[in-house]
Amino acid sequence: MREFIEVLKNSALFEGTEEHEIISMLKCLQGKGKKYGKGEYVLRAGEMSVSVSILLKGRLLIQNDDYWGNRSIVNSIGPGEVFGEAYAVPAGKPVLNDVVAQEQSLVMSFDLSKILTTCPTACPFHSRIIKNLFFAVSKKNQLLVEKLWHISRRTTREKLISYLSQEAARNGSGSFTIPFNRQQLADFLFVDRSAMSAELGKMREQGLIEFERNKFTLLNKRVR
Amino acid sequence: MREFIEVLKNSALFEGTEEHEIISMLKCLQGKGKKYGKGEYVLRAGEMSVSVSILLKGRLLIQNDDYWGNRSIVNSIGPGEVFGEAYAVPAGKPVLNDVVAQEQSLVMSFDLSKILTTCPTACPFHSRIIKNLFFAVSKKNQLLVEKLWHISRRTTREKLISYLSQEAARNGSGSFTIPFNRQQLADFLFVDRSAMSAELGKMREQGLIEFERNKFTLLNKRVR
DNA sequence: CCTATTTTGTTGTAAATACAACGTCATCTT
DNA sequence: AAGATGACGTTGTATTTACAACAAAATAGG
């Protein structure tokens, strides 16, 4: 339990709060933990959801299969990250994407109305949570815009460069591990896997990058 | 002035509030109005911004030009819509996109901290605004996910069908006007204008759609 | 340790796209 | 009214992609 409090403390939702505050807030918010096995669905597109969740352990994929089985991946969620907030609208719109556990995962969910309705007496940190929730969605928004940036590029190579550059920047290093395998990366960038694989091969040949499985290194060669 | 109160009343930010409440809140929030001529920049990528804005009149484009001059359009903003919320993070990240007036426009801006900091005495509707702001970002988030849906399609035709279908659904009619000209639509869907134009022509030939300038009609012919 | 399954790379081909160039028509400006 | 500018459609070509098929390598499960 203690380790999860640590995760919560570092999550966007509880930013700026102390451990003991979190513990009392968990009671106030009535957070509920739930385990999911690999491949299990945390949320299904079409469901109604009025909860906001934090991933405590594991990894989730936010994805979408169309009628013909083509899969597109919106995002990958790691420990401490908030998800589901965007669907939690008052009108009660259905969830747009599937959320699937990529490995054994532990999720803590909060009823949105419990978060948005301040309890006047017990919980002085409540308004902080509301602001944090706003910032969390705000940040998610930015991530989506950045993703648009990647896929707005016209060629597979440009998309790869855009994505890998951002990952390098985010990790503060030219060497980093991505949360996707090849097929998932292709689904994330909306390109064909085999074509992408070929392009990666060419980029390696040309000395731009090195990689092995999902570990990539950008080399000091001027790109473009 | 009165007409703008009406716009505000119908905006996501002030949903559920009455006119007289809005007037008192405007004082509390110190909203500032500003005019922009056609082509003028409301926000520039790279700027710091800590404000949330509502478009009172006109139309804005959220767009992005890369180093080589390729433009991509993230969204079109109409009267009553909220924008800029996503950049208003505490850490003070730079704005990611240009916001440009497509025609003469009137914008009202609020200091984010004024919104998030509740004034304990004067303004009982303040917490409502905070929730609304959350819902507004949340909804924007959904729009982005829906946009991802469109551009995740592989061919220009599929992207067009996806986008036009959604617009038809949104308007509750097979006939509707889009807020883009051809070049802008192409930049929005991340495709080549001429190729898109050709594809639209084919779709018209095949009896799927009709269009003239930016007025489209989806015909009752099974798509796919 | 062996086998089944998954992941990744490679290649060929048909299809789709980007890009450039150009003509027509509409709109704006003076 | 005339010229300039912008929007739209059309066409040809080189480039890029999607798709299918297959082999090699890695991984998972018993």
Give the terminus-to-terminus CA distance of chain A. Answer: 49 Å
Quote the beta fraction of chain A. Answer: 15-25%
SS-based structural class of chain A? alpha+beta
Rounded mean pLDDT score of chain A: 88
Number of beta-strand segments of chain A? 11
Radius of gyration of chain A: 19 Å
Name the strands of the widest sheet of chain A in spatial order: 1-8-3-6
Oligomer: homodimer
The coarse silhouette of chain A is: globular
Question: What is the string of helix and strand elements of chain A?
Answer: HHEEEEEEEEHHHEHHEE
Helix content of chain A: 25-40%
Largest sheet of chain A: 4 strands, antiparallel
DSSP helical segment count of chain A:
7
Low-confidence stretches of chain A: none
For the largest interface in this structure, which chains are involved and how many residues does each contribute? A-B, 37 and 37 residues
Describe the 3D structure:
The structure is a homodimer of 224-residue chains. The mean pLDDT of chain A is 88. By secondary structure, chain A is an alpha+beta fold. In chain A, helix 4 runs antiparallel to helix 5. Chain A has helices at 2-9, 19-29, 112-116, 126-152, 156-171, 182-189, 193-205, and strands at residues 32-36, 41-43, 51-57, 60-65, 71-77, 82-83, 98-101, 105-111, 175-177, 209-212, 215-218. Chain A has seven helices and eleven strands. Chain B binds a DNA duplex (30 and 30 nucleotides) through helix 7.
